[in-house]
Amino acid sequence: MTTPTTAEIIGILGGMGPAATADFYAKLVATTPGSSDQDHLRTVIWSDPTIPDRTAALLGDGPDPTPWLLDGSRVLREAGATVIAIPCNTAHAFVPRIADHVGLPIIHMIGEVARHLTTLSPRIHTAGLLATTGTVRAGLYQEWLDRFGIRLVLPGTVSQNHEVMTAIHAVKAGIRDDRTTALLSRAAQRLTERGAQAVIAGCTEIPLGLPGDAVGVPLIDPALVLAQALVRRARTDGGVEQGR
């Protein structure tokens, strides 16, 4: 029997949505260096699409998803996970409510993105954000980017409602067509026209509908950044700084 290269077992708290969860796992596999099955990370995936809509909850239009997130985290822990990754940006608004009850470290995707932006050259002073209205209203990226002195540019109300959210709902419905890409690329262009040197695809559905070459500046994929952080943690003794 082959001995695993790391004791880490990645727990993926997914289902928000299912396609984004599958895409995240594919990115985790692609990011992991290795030449055989045994070089890859042991992973447990809990994909629960019954978790209530996170944006609806933040806007006061739906139930609180915290109990589902907590239950899913416990499922992962009981299955042997040693660390949890949540490939949903909006769900990070609820991380403070579950972090002290999970018993495992949660790698904070948004915190990892903020740190990643500081490594880019030329230095990023202003970043644009394409995300759900819930993520925007919760100020998740605003809080983290402010810590690193990065200004955040957000879509206007019309662009947010009729371009970004329309495209996100389309991807969740399995529609990834030219219209979806056009909506997102127009929204991204509006951000670059206002000074964004990079655009954060701050909803894990967005990279499924917006290829990087459709944006004139670097398109930052938080799911990919999270996957890279997990690989670094698993491959080093020091691990990755936790954010809550």
Written overview of the protein:
Keywords: Isomerase. This is Aspartate racemase. With 244 residues, the chain is α/β, with parallel strands linked by helices. The chain has 2 domains: 9-109 and 223-235, Rossmann fold (3-Layer(aba) Sandwich), CATH 3.40.50.1860; 110-220, Rossmann fold, CATH 3.40.50. Helix content is 46%, strand content 13%. The protein contains 11 helices and 8 strands. The protein has helices at 18-31, 54-58, 66-78, 95-102, 109-117, 133-138, 140-147, 157-172, 178-193, 206-209, 222-235, and strands at residues 9-14, 42-47, 83-85, 106-107, 126-130, 151-153, 198-201, 219-220. The strands form 2 sheets. It has a 4-stranded parallel β-sheet, with helices on both faces. Helix 4 (95-102) links the parallel strand 3 and strand 4. Helix 1 packs across helix 11 (222-235), helix 3 packs parallel to helix 4 (95-102) and helix 5 packs across helix 11. The longest helix has 16 residues, at 157-172. The N and C termini lie far apart (37 Å). Mean pLDDT is 94; it is low at 237-244.
Provide the fold topology.
Layout: E1 9-14, H1 18-31, E2 42-47, H2 54-58, H3 66-78, E3 83-85, H4 95-102, E4 106-107, H5 109-117, E5 126-130, H6 133-138, H7 140-147, E6 151-153, H8 157-172, H9 178-193, E7 198-201, H10 206-209, E8 219-220, H11 222-235
Parallel strand pairs: 1-2, 1-3, 3-4, 5-6, 5-7, 7-8
Helix pairs in contact: 1-11, 3-4, 5-7, 5-11, 8-9
